[in-house]
UniProtKB/TrEMBL annotation:
Domain Glycoside hydrolase family: 87-419
Keyword Hydrolase recorded: yes
One Gene Ontology MF term: hydrolase activity, hydrolyzing O-glycosyl compounds
UniProt key word Hydrolase: yes
Low complexity compositional bias, start-end: 532-547
Name under which the protein is recorded: Endoglycoceramidase
Signal sequence residues: 1-25
Domain Glycoside hydrolase family 5 C-terminal span(s) in chain numbering: 441-517
InterPro entries, per database record: GH, GH5_C, Glyco_hydro_5, Glyco_hydro_b, Glycosphingolipid_Hydrolases
Length: 555
């Protein structure tokens, strides 16, 4: 019975209780030089093939979105014009063959997605789909990803390429986020699932990460046992070279929800700062320079362990001392974090104490910890997963979405929603359910100045944003995105003030302009009151008079 005894001892470690809950992380609903390839001729053939395919794709590409950077001391994202950019989006991850979501080849689906204000998709870019066997890069897969990226861009939606994995591989009862040909290089000291017992169906999926064999596999990847990390570097090098000229891709997320490592050999890895400093940073500092050798323009997104953002610091925070590859790359680095309130993993409907614990304590603490870490590390932050049980109407928790979105507005943090069972039946978003959760709220997607404040009242559906004018303001446009189909089906009432005026209004966007370089202006969007002037949009170009646009079907 040594196994159960050891488990009990480990559970006495400082943060093991936290780990056991938080490691569920995202999918609680489950729904310098790079080593050369040993086969240089094979690699050269792929280079020629890739170049021809990229040239063909560039000729066919209809839309090229601006490059995004994390420049500035305010930890915000900006485009080539210098405008502050904010992103609201969704995750789409296919955890089995064909390793991409077929629905993203459906232009009608993408058009509806855009109509709800979505301007980024975190797309599962699966290593097993891209490189099914060592050195055998599946160019059909890369071309399909290219097609998806182009179709999203045609609707002004960026793509974040996410190397998604949970629990490493099918060796550990899950799926091959890490290809089996890599995972099999890790030789466990004791057979899986020690120290647990039973088959795969006998335990929650996340419990598999707490087995010795799975934790050791992560550790072997980080420390390049039998060339596992080298394989990861070659995969990312090839991919970065392929996508390097595609500005429709906002960036590369190196790996989803990396686990701490071999916690049985080194229990202190349960401390998130130790895991981040000694394991995750080791991987990131090896992969990022290889990417940068081929691609200097895309953002690199990097994550701590899932329980690493309750606090900040070297022990109980992320543990990172610099962005991947070093501080010189801060303007191209994004701290990616996930937020799931643990208290909503408890079965049963949400109670008052659970809501208070999430909305008033844990949520603000996590966001503050992230901002402190990013303030030290440089770059920007991005909430790349939230929702699932935290926003699940089936547990009475849908209002928790509002609390998370309000925190994002307060900190000007972009977000990407992870679907719940309610709004993602059969791996396809139900956009009406998505809107019902308040996820299609208006937001300032591009601001030609400095954002002073952003707020949204979910009850009255009133959006308010104030900005400070700068030298950039007269030469660029500010864009507010809104949902005409669901949020404002009866029309939207737009009230600019303080030198802002309406340039155009489309089905999804309000474009605002100002000729001022000093001072500030504000804009408010709300449902139209009964006495709102029914002014033609084309005439509403100056002043503070409110403009009422028609509802669904209006010309």
């Amino acid at each position: 019975m040594a196994g159960p005894v050891l488990v009990r001892r480990l559970l006495l470690c400082v943060v093991v209780v936290v780990v056991a809950v938080v490691v569920v992380g995202c999918d609680t609903c489950f729904a310098g030089n790079t080593p050369k390839s040993p086969d240089h001729d094979h690699h050269h053939h792929h280079q020629q093939q890739r170049q021809q395919q990229r040239q063909q794709h560039d000729r066919q590409q209809d839309q090229k979105l601006p490059w995004i950077t994390a420049s500035g001391e305010d930890a915000l994202l900006r485009d080539e014009q210098g405008r502050v950019r904010v992103f609201h989006g969704v995750n789409h991850v296919q955890k089995a063959f064909p390793w991409y979501p077929p629905i993203l080849l459906n232009t009608t689906y993408i058009k509806e997605m855009a109509s709800l204000g979505v301007n980024v998709v975190r797309l599962g870019f699966m290593w097993s789909g891209a490189e099914p066997s060592e050195g055998n890069f599946n160019m059909t897969y890369y071309q399909t990803i290219d097609t998806i990226v182009a179709q999203l861009a045609n609707h002004n939606i960026y793509t974040l390429l996410d190397v998604h994995q949970d629990g490493f591989s099918s060796k550990f009862c899950l799926y091959d986020g890490i290809p089996l040909w890599v995972a099999n290089r890790s030789v466990a000291r004791r057979p899986f699932p020690w120290p647990m017992q039973g088959g795969c169906s006998s335990r929650p999926w996340a419990a598999n990460e707490l087995t010795e064999a799975c934790g050791q596999a992560y550790d072997d990847l980080y420390h390049n046992v039998r060339g596992m990390r080298d394989a990861f570097i070659k995969f990312w090098s090839f991919s970065a070279d392929y996508f390097k000229n595609n500005s429709n891709i906002i960036g590369y997320e190196l790996i989803n929800e990396p686990f701490a490592g071999d916690v049985y050999a080194k229990p202190e890895l349960f401390l998130p700062g130790v895991a981040g400093r000694e394991n995750l940073a080791l991987l990131y500092d090896a992969v990022a320079p290889a990417i940068r050798q081929r691609d200097q323009r895309h953002l690199i997104f990097y994550e701590p362990v899932t329980w690493g953002m309750v606090f900040n610091g070297s022990v109980v925070g992320s543990g990172f001392q610099h962005v991947p590859g070093g501080a010189a790359h801060a303007n191209k680095s994004v701290f990616s974090f996930h937020y799931y309130c643990w208290f909503f993993d408890i079965p049963g409907n949400a109670s008052t104490w659970r809501r208070a614990a999430c909305d008033d304590a844990l949520g603000p603490q996590v966001f503050n910890a992230v901002q402190r870490d990013v303030g030290y590390l440089g770059g920007a932050s991005f909430l790349t997963e939230f929702a699932a049980t935290t926003c699940d109407p089936s547990s009475g928790a849908s209002e928790e979405c509002t609390a998370v979105l309000d925190l994002c507005d307060e900190h000007l943090v972009s977000w990407i929603h992870w679907p719940t069972d309610t709004d993602y039946p059969g791996g396809v978003y139900d956009w009406a359910a998505y809107a019902a959760l308040g996820l299609s709220r208006p937001y300032a997607a591009a601001v030609a100045g400095l954002v002073q404040s952003v707020s949204f009242n979910n009850a009255t559906r009133t959006f308010h944003m104030c900005m400070q004018f700068t030298a950039l303001t007269p030469s660029a446009k500010t864009v507010v995105r809104y949902d005409k189909t669901h949020m404002y089906a009866s029309g939207v009432y737009i009230r600019p003030s303080g030198g802002l005026s309406i340039a155009t209004v489309s089905d999804h966007d309000v474009v605002l302009i100002s000729q001022q370089t000093q001072g500030s202006g504000c804009v408010t969007l709300s449902p139209p009151p009964d006495n709102a002037p029914d002014t033609a949009v084309a005439a509403a170009t100056t002043g503070t008079t409110g403009t009422r646009t028609g509802g669904k079907g209006a010309a």
